[in-house]
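User: Hi! I'm working on a homework problem where we have to compare a predicted structure to a textbook description. Could you give me the structure for the chain below?
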Amino acid sequence: MPAERTLPVAGSNSTVLVFADADAAARAAADRIARVVAESVAARGKAILGLATGATPEKVYDDLAARVAAGTLSFRDATTYNLDEYYPIQPLDPLSYRAYMHRLLFSRVDLAANRAHVLDGTVPEEATAEHAAQFDRWIDADGGLDVQLLGIGRNGHIGFNEPSDLSVEGFAARSTLLIDLHPVTRADAVREFGSLEAVIPRALTMGVRQILGARTVVMLATGPKKAAIVAEALKGPVTAAVPASLLRTVADKVVWLLDEPAAAELG
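Assistant: Happy to help. Predicted structure tokens:
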């Protein structure tokens, strides 16, 4: 079996690359992020990165940190914006995505602390709408995202943009917001929180507008549990009921990086 193969997906113009295992897919994601950093810094003196959390990107961050340690990559001219954060949660809570990012990446690379943006799970509820709007203004002021790293939820969510009955156009235009988590998302979070009752039921999430507006989108999906939703997102209808399917509306700038188990239902 080759280390990497391009998989044509009928009815989709998306670039789909399949790797022998999850480690190889993660290395490919790190390669693409490192390339965007170098190219963006060379072209405009800065790189604006959209980052993801969860189990899937952990090996990506290990790889990027190793490159910084080896002197082949620098985050000195980078600014990062994370997709989401539980709400409410304290940044020092080990289950917060701020703590996750500090542990996995921020503390291991030469990224300025004031350029590592994670949505704030401590803002008063009446201020969440303005905080979300400010997050979007910061990204817009930086010229948009050069690259967005994504994972896919078992229900097709991207960030915490959960399945919706909005029109495709309305969903695609959605800004950063406070959202209720889908039951599937909450069930999947039991691994971290220990019980369903302990899972924080809401989150702040970057809106679909910013995700689709990124100049490059890297979707990383690994493992057999993602096979069904990967196939639905790439082969089913484009609909807000499967948020990741909207990536097909900007397919020319999206690459799907899959391991063999995640690609199993693509034919």
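For your comparison, note the following. The radius of gyration is 17 Å. The first strand starts at residue 4 and ends at 6. Good luck with the assignment!
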